[in-house]
């Protein structure tokens, strides 16, 4: 028999099958989906590959498969092929997500026990390293093997690298010396749930609303049919209880469940709720802090059918579950469900595909659904809407007030705290309650704003804030490339108080210490949350040591439950309004709703103060009223007028090259080809001229792009795949190209 094999390499040219002979002794074991070792080209080392097809004979002279390492199912291979086409990447890129992490037998004794260990991370971006491998700057096969291993398993230890790659630590040290890898000392917390006695909980009596939602989804479980549901419920409305009971039902039917949550919410607190209901043995948890050995164990536990409930971040959607009965995606609006690395997949798409194939329900839960999800739900576009409008434990939603910062300024208050926020903090300190101060800053770019009237410069074509480029001293639109000179006088009100906004958690902490010298504070932002210091440790400290004030960026907003937090202050709601992204208002509304949901979650009443220069902005106003529907109604009209998702997809074709003249030439050729091939669809597509990306040069590589606004139809997907294929066949060495559909970031 002959196997058709895909080589596990990132090189685009290798995204095709090669024929190999299946030796007699391996025949009983090799199936579609097997991971094998094969001789390839002239190299001495065996290459890794995946069997994607099996046939009787071949016209070619072929070599033997040398060894078999792991098996996937043919369903997984089909999914990988589907993904490769949909997300414009190699099949091997997709298969990697489905493999058992580290397939070699691991040495159980080597499990990490020390308190502090050295872990290895990539020092450069994956893209950069891939490129250096592709153009031959990194040549040693062992070095490439180690790098590829770490790409998939950041945070492993050197002994683990030795076991899983069969390479010596000397090679790791060379890579560290050459600046590809770095050592990070990490404190290891033993499994925090290992010795903890968790009280078993039993199901609660569902509220009327919960019951209606539950019954609808239960029917799909009973009848074994595919259906997508949006469980839209305000914060604390008892969505998780509904999930738990649906899972119970699924287990009764001898089927299994996958629950996806945003990585940052995979806290012991959350997992405890599942363990309390179902017991530890039934559950597999997959997250980035597991060692490779632990991940290997969890994967096997799933494969062998021991784990019945799989909880994990985005990639857990690929867990090798047999007899899947339900998929639940919590906080479905969260941007972490979209992968920004190759394959650039959206976990919700994968979940839909799997749910359809397995004929099972898919449940998307959120208090602030993604615009597209909600649009589809209310327009009968394949999603059934289920609503929970009240908090389940009868605690009331917090009182939300808006403070106009322009007014504060007019009153001579130049500090970051308004009069009212100042007084509320003072009072909270007196009562020994806790406070969260939230500095809403997303992204990378600086924007400018008039402090007198709140005016920000927006692109006239795109209605998106222009970004300040300091090196050119210009304002630019990241969507269409439109430029404007810098303003120093406000065109609206003539004021000279134009300010350039950057970050500010540190400054805020200093200000708090000055104003409230006796208050204890803890800060959570990109500086304090490092590879060493997890956000979870900071949150535990905040809770356990009863620290007065937590100061942080958006990391503080995700589903944490602090009974003693009664005050939440949003320092400047405007920063996320002015990101150069069409989702600015949506993100602002989501973040304000979520952060408000942190206040007064139990019997103490909660208070939220939102400070803003744009108090009349609809995303802030509707967040104050805590009305998603109001927000949605306004936002959807704007999206329709300006043609943004859900009314189209935004397809970013990115190019990078070391030479500026090359990238200009390549992008313009690609553009011509694109126009030529889409001639008869131009009514439905808006194709931008090739233009430099917002960050137009990274590490000496120029970055350009073409943006298509339109629906990513099957036809357009075929056209793009065909152009790409021709492109790769031309074998243009220096220029790299990626296609990303509805990316999170527009950099
Ligand atoms: P969500 O997931 O929507 O944020 P949770 O499931 O965390 O909401 O529920 C919020 C609180 O309400 C939790 O303390 C939970 O135990 C409680 N709760 C949920 N459903 C019920 C119910 N039917 N009866 C009583 N309390 C409930
Ligand atoms: Zn002004
Ligand atoms: Zn523009």
Strand arrangement, largest sheet? 11-12-10-13-14-9-15
Name the CATH superfamily assignment of the largest domain.
Answer: P-loop containing nucleotide triphosphate hydrolases
Shape descriptor reads globular
The ligands found in this model are: adenosine-5'-diphosphate, zinc ion
CATH class of the largest domain: Alpha Beta
Largest sheet features: 7 strands, parallel
Structure explained in plain terms:
Strand 25 (565-570), helix 17 and strand 26 form a beta-alpha-beta unit. This protein has five domains: 2-99, 3-Layer(aba) Sandwich (GIY-YIG endonuclease); 116-187, no CATH class; 208-388, Rossmann fold (3-Layer(aba) Sandwich), CATH 3.40.50; 399-444 and 503-635, Rossmann fold; 649-741, Alpha-Beta Plaits (2-Layer Sandwich), CATH 3.30.70.600. A seven-stranded parallel sheet has the order 11-12-10-13-14-9-15, with helices on both faces. It has a six-stranded parallel sheet with strand order 16-26-25-17-24-23, with helices on both faces. With 747 residues, the chain is of the alpha/beta class. Helix 20 packs across helix 21. Helices cover 32% and strands 23% of the residues. Bound molecules: adenosine-5'-diphosphate and zinc ion (2 copies). One zinc ion is lined by residues 450, 452-453, 455, 490, 492-493, 495.
Itemize the secondary structure elements and their pairings:
Elements: E1 2-7, E2 17-21, E3 34-39, E4 46-55, E5 67-71, H1 74-86, H2 91-98, E6 116-122, H3 126-134, H4 141-152, E7 156-157, H5 158-165, H6 169-177, E8 181-187, H7 208-222, E9 227-233, H8 239-252, E10 256-260, H9 268-278, E11 283-286, H10 292-303, E12 309-312, E13 324-329, H11 347-358, E14 361-366, H12 371-378, E15 383-388, E16 399-404, H13 405-410, H14 419-430, E17 434-438, E18 447-450, E19 467-469, E20 474-476, E21 483-485, E22 498-501, H15 505-515, E23 521-524, H16 535-544, E24 549-552, E25 565-570, H17 584-596, E26 607-612, H18 618-625, H19 628-642, E27 649-657, H20 660-677, E28 686-687, E29 691-698, E30 701-710, H21 714-729, E31 736-741
Parallel strand pairs: 9-14, 9-15, 10-12, 10-13, 11-12, 13-14, 16-26, 17-24, 17-25, 23-24, 25-26
Antiparallel strand pairs: 1-2, 1-4, 3-4, 3-5, 6-7, 6-8, 18-22, 19-20, 20-21, 27-30, 27-31, 28-30, 29-30
This protein binds adenosine-5'-diphosphate and zinc ion (2 copies).
